[in-house]
Design a protein that fits this description.
Elements (H helix, E strand, L loop, with lengths): L2 E11 L12 E12 L2 E7 L9 E12 L1 E7 L13 H13 L7 H15 L2 E7 L4 H14 L3 E4 L1 E2 L12 H15 L6 E6 L7 H13 L4 E6 L3 H10 L6 H7 L7 E5 L5 H10 L2 E4 L1 H6 L7 H7 L2 E4 L11 H14 L6 H15 L17 E4 L5 H7 L5 H11 L5 E6 L2 E2 L8
Parallel strand pairs: 1-4, 5-6, 6-7, 7-9, 8-9, 9-10, 10-11, 11-12, 12-13
Antiparallel strand pairs: 1-2, 2-3, 4-14, 14-15, 15-16
Helix pairs in contact: 2-3, 3-4, 4-5, 11-14, 12-14, 13-14
């Protein structure tokens, strides 16, 4: 069995930090080593030349080695419409999003976009993500085929939408069910691929389609569910007009059996007390999308309130409403959103969310999100001196926490020194780098 040893400063979380001084929440090796075999972490600890043997040693000192970043919510089919000017969510959807997604009916388009999309994830240190495809099955095929080619653990699904969208994007309750069923059979569990049943949101699904989604969830409990919740005031009002018998927006999904520990609810900004309780009781995941929420003026996520209520929380870029592929920029904007809420997000909590926290949100702890024996060797190597401004600031940094905060505040894709997917170099092997 061939082995590879990565040498550097190794950081991995073991629990959610309870404060900026919670050193028990992570393991840190100032001169550490990660031993990789067959795509997985074999061991981790202080560097010991006596155990290296004939293994290849790749020296990343003085950089930090962390688990690869995990992105819980994005739309790969919106990669060519990032930074589209619009005033609000529904205007943005109708003016740009639905127009862009119609292109995925064209032969070859999905494959080209998927390849470029995965390149951007790798450049920014993201090794796993949860994505919405378009309503076209071929967009799902391209998404998972590219993931399989790169040996990446990815979650995704075809959006189901049978109303309030252009005819070229609409399916029906029956065709959405049939397409999803076939795609689950084709891709879920193939390689590292995992499927997410994806009714886009209440506005674009009839009651019949949500019933079909309920049937899919019952038939495939091994799959995830992803949809949008309470992103924008106008969206909430329209949803309640369409589902007047439901108690509130979250109640729509509750009524159709779509909430649960494998359900990812993008945004979850404007939740009332009952909705918050329901998310906590069902163990559904509220996904914080800070760059998107600021860009579209949707509102400020209330992390502290949801956490106190026992709601599981993740964080995501939400490309293309989100404005950056990088989790570093996402953490930076998340910090600012919570500052406006009067809430503190420590650097430890930021990097916990982007790694082990998001892995736990997917119930994939022990598989990804940690540098522990048996976990996939999906890793990111971070350089906190990647730019002149960062190097200047690093001259005064005296602690790991300060360095993490510098990385999330000033870092970008230049701070991603290398990425490993199942133990194989990924960033340095991209074309043009």
């Amino acid at each position: 069995m061939s082995r590879t040893v990565l040498r550097g400063r190794v950081l991995s979380f073991v629990s959610e930090p309870q404060g900026i001084d919670d050193t028990a929440s992570y393991r840190y090796f100032a001169d550490g080593m990660v031993v990789i075999a067959d795509g997985k972490v074999q061991s981790v600890g202080d560097f010991d030349a006596s155990v290296v043997g004939e293994a290849e040693v790749i020296d990343h000192r003085p950089h930090l080695i962390l688990p690869g970043f995990i992105d819980l919510h994005l739309h790969y089919v919106q990669s060519q419409m990032i930074a589209s000017y619009a005033g609000s969510l529904l205007e943005w959807l109708n003016t740009f999003t639905f127009v862009e997604e119609q292109k995925f009916s064209q032969q070859g388009h999905a494959g080209a976009v998927a390849s470029a999309f995965y390149d951007e994830l790798i450049r920014n240190g993201t090794t796993s993500a949860v994505a919405y495809c378009s309503s076209h099955p071929r967009s799902v095929d391209a998404f998972f085929a590219e993931a399989e080619k790169r040996n990446m653990l990815m979650v995704g699904g075809k959006v189901m939408m049978d109303r309030n969208a252009p005819e070229a994007l609409r399916d029906s309750a029956q065709s959405g069910y049939d397409d999803t069923k076939a795609l689950i059979e084709r891709w879920h569990g193939r390689g590292r691929g995992l499927y997410a049943i994806s009714p886009r949101f209440a506005i674009t699904s009839t009651p019949a389609q949500l019933e079909a989604s309920r049937a899919l969830v019952a038939e495939h409990p091994e799959c995830y569910v992803q949809t949008h919740l309470s992103e924008n005031a106008a969206e909430i009002s329209f949803s309640m007009e369409l589902y007047p018998d439901s108690p509130d927006y979250a109640g729509i999904y509750e009524d159709y059996g779509l909430l649960g520990p494998k359900t990812l609810l993008g945004h979850s900004i404007h939740l009332n007390h009952r909705e918050t309780q329901v998310l906590a009781e069902t163990q559904s995941v509220a996904v914080f999308c800070p760059t998107s929420n600021l860009f579209l003026g949707s509102g400020l996520f209330d992390r502290e309130r949801l956490a106190k209520a026992g709601v599981r929380i993740g964080i995501a870029t939400d490309i293309g409403g989100g404005t950056n592929y990088g989790m570093l920029a996402t953490l930076d904007e998340g910090y600012k959103v919570l500052q406006l809420r009067g809430q503190r997000l420590t650097p430890l909590n930021s990097f916990y969310m982007a790694t082990l926290g998001n892995a736990r949100a997917l119930s994939l702890q022990g598989t990804i999100g940690s540098i522990e024996p048996g976990c996939a060797a999906d890793l990111v190597v971070l350089d906190a001196s990647a730019t002149p401004a960062m190097r200047l600031r690093m001259e005064t940094v005296t602690s790991l926490v300060e360095e993490l905060f510098l990385l999330q505040t000033l870092g970008d894709d230049r701070s991603i020194a290398e990425v490993y997917v199942a133990g194989a170099r990924a960033k340095s092997t991209l074309g043009g780098l």
